[in-house]
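Lab meeting prep.
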Amino acid sequence: MNRAALLVLADGRFPAGGHAHSGGAEEAVTAGRVRDVASLEAFCRGRLHTAGLVAAGLAAAAAAGYDPLLLEEAADARTAAPALRYTSRRLGRQLLRAARAAWPCAALDALATARPRGAHQPVVLGLAARCAGLTPLDAAHAATYESIGGPVTAAVRLLRLDPFDATAVLARLAPDMDHVAAEAADAVQDAQADGPAALPAASAPLLDITAEQHAVRGARLFAS
């Protein structure tokens, strides 16, 4: 098992395009819901247990060998906002390019052929993890970290937060990340028997609404 690959996959310098996205943090800052370290932590905790859990479930299922095209349908069903579907596929397309270069794999090639305009990012993440020799739990951990690592990094720029304080938010949320990743990986066992409906389907209506608002905002620093 190539556990070091997990560090590469989760590294913010991996060219997957995430640096251009705030995961909803920019709109939350604009609306005044995120204004300091405490409110950033609350935002990230909520995002982790909703959108992060869904992403971790999809990634873990893809890493376990579940049909990525069926997971694409499941991701569509769990992504209500058109802006978020667009963002997920845009990030997935960039991640797929990077993953194919890092871990050449027939499964990644097949997904790129089937979804030339982009597959959902969590599905690509899980498939990349599988091609890198990682486990479903590893893929879930990468997804949970990505779900809040981006917003924390964005908040440093948006609010001029002390990077040490922002990093402490991630450290305090580490037990939550472990819990969510384990929950997602456990759900894959049910999905193998019952289909993708057994995967987590937590909703975050406010994230959906703000994603649509952000998509039409004229002046913005981040793409999402």
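Slide two material, second protein:
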Amino acid sequence: MFAPDVLGPTVDRLAALAGAGRALEFAVGTGRVAVPLAARGVPVAGVELSRPMLDVLRQKVDEAALPVVEGDMATTRVPGEFSLVYLVFNTISNLLTQDEQVACFRNAARHLAPGGCFLVELWVPELRSLPPGRRATVWAQEDGYLGLDTYDVLRQRVVSHHVRFGEGREAELFRSPHRYVWPSELDLMARLAGFVLESREADFSGAEFTADSRSHVSVYRLPGAPTT
């Protein structure tokens, strides 16, 4: 996530969308994206629920350089108006109900000036690789690391399991729950909040989105005069 060939195109795309306006990151975390975006001259603010992540962010920049409101990205209001709201690295799936995800789109719309846009980066559910009768897929198998997802297709839930291990018998397990969302469902959420889909690409480098793409970067725009 921090590699220059990943982070560089991300910041380039966000800076272009923000133009001369302000940007707001939902789930700003430790500032992986917001800090270099602010360094590019874009005024950036954030919303973050995790106090430990905010503590790490504050070791990098102070409140004056990057103001953050602590709270839930589906409901928390940040003062001012923005030309761009963005949500990267699958984070909208951390909202575990459809209602919360719809509320997130509506919250983004509340923060935007007419013509402003909401960017969402999200993975495509890999249900095609789920064998009949099985509930799990292995999506990463490397030296010292195993990544797998367990699916609940009835509730549209997935739990990502990250297993890290060395030469011995012990291993470290981290699990994160998500609600997976199809691109078409995401588009409907956007329409409910007043957005229209402007573009969809496979990544921040602009690769074409196809039926085989494992992720997408979607840009939704509000009606009105563009702010860029």
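Talking points for slide two:
The longest helix spans residues 4-18.
DSSP finds five helices and eleven strands in the chain.
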